[in-house]
Amino acid sequence: MSVAKFSVRNPVLVNMIMIAAIVLGTYSMITLPRELSPDVSFPWIFIFIGDPGVAPDEIEQLIVNPVEDELADVDGLINLLSYSRQGGAFLWLKFETMSDDEFDKRFETVRNELAKVKLPATALDPDVSKFKTQDFQPMVNVVLSGDLPEAELKELAEDLKKDILDLKDIARVQIAGIRDREIWVEADPDKIEGYGLSLLQIIQAIKANNLNLTGGDLKIGRWDYTIRTMGELKNAQDIANIVIRADPAGHHIRVKDVATVHPAWAERETITRYNGRPSVTLTVAKKARGNSIQLIDAI
Questions:
Q1: Are 138-180+268-298 and 197-257 equal in CATH topology?
Q2: N or C: which end of the chain has fewer CB within 10 A?
Q3: Quick check: 39 pLDDT over 70?
Q4: Taking the CA atoms of the chain, what radius of gyration do you get in angstroms?
Q5: Residues paired with residue 79 on neighbouring β-strands, in sequence order
Q6: Helix (H, G, I), strand (E, B), or coil: what is residue 80?
Q7: Distance between CA 74 and CA 61 in Å, rounded?
Q8: Does pTM surpass 0.85?
Q9: Which fold has domain 197-257?
Q10: 138-180+268-298 domain in CATH 3.90.470.10?
């Protein structure tokens, strides 16, 4: 029996099938995840091991070579690329195409093999990560621009960053185009020499007064209390009043006696402009389960 004859003889059944197809299709269209740039995973693993202040030759000898020897026999590994530079090593592991579950097993194997490597005592813990396009391709860039003072533009950007991070499924927000606030201490060479001081003494005095130190634990009955010395400097006035040297007669030489202390902006590393006017750019990345279209509408 042909499909046409079956449809003519069973109109009710055919109509029910058609209605079910329409309903299921509409439901699928509404619930189907939509992405501007779907997340794509590659069977790649990145490893970074830092060791501040160590030369590239020593990095290769003490870190890269032992790590390469340990990872060379990991199953499914195709290529292992290493890059040694001042203060750290970067390794890029490429695996053959495999399922996500299999790759997760290789990832754990790599972490376990790394744990067997005896790294220098000064080396930092290895940073091991998988490669995903979402890690390198932001979901959206938000630009704030206007003829505002830098401090106001910075405050608006930071407030907006907090609001965006409060949204569900937002992974991170990075700000470009703003500078951090700093406190500058500009020493006067003549005054330093006149008081018989050195620049090192000023630096040491500021460091010694800008510490939060733990004083141990105090146990009273069933309760344990942590004792801390809170000595962190808050503003320019705190730095200006630091005592560099005191004599038995009670005369104090303070930072403000030999230097000018004032708040300032850090040196600019990134300049962003929008239509020729100063701007701040917020780069927003989402979590894997987040819906790009919905999150952009929410932002």
A1: no
A2: N
A3: no
A4: 31
A5: 94
A6: strand
A7: 21
A8: no
A9: 3.30.2090
A10: no
